[in-house]
Amino acid sequence: GREFVDMDMLIEAREGTSVAEIFRTRGEEYFRLIEQELCMELGQRNEMVIATGGGTLLSEQNCARFANALIVCLDAGVEEIVARLRGTGDRPLLASGDLRARVEELLAARRAAYAQIENHVDTSGKSAKQAADEVVALYRRIADA
Description:
The chain is mostly helical. The protein has helices spanning 7-15, 19-25, 28-42, 60-65, 78-85, 99-115, 128-144, and strands at residues 3-6, 48-51, 72-75, 119-122.
């Protein structure tokens, strides 16, 4: 019953091009600046469900924008992530090199930041609906506490 925003999709709509193309033509630094501005905008709103990209909450500044929000990290094992991404070409940070090796590198580099997120839902082997149901159940437990 909440407004849903996928940050990558909103950035693509506003920029008129894909995230992969933004990375290719403008670079990651430009993308992260747009992402930071969007975090500032969305962080001022309430009653939303926001899908961030995997790198969004690596920035302390971005995290601070959502200080009053319930943040849930959706986890999955390396094998699960690789299986989900196999055959896709829309992830610029995974575009070159061995997919499994890149996934492992990114997860290792992000491990400390992800560990700072209090709430996690393991999505391995689950449908999107099953994962969403777990997030809603988590929200209800926290809201009722």
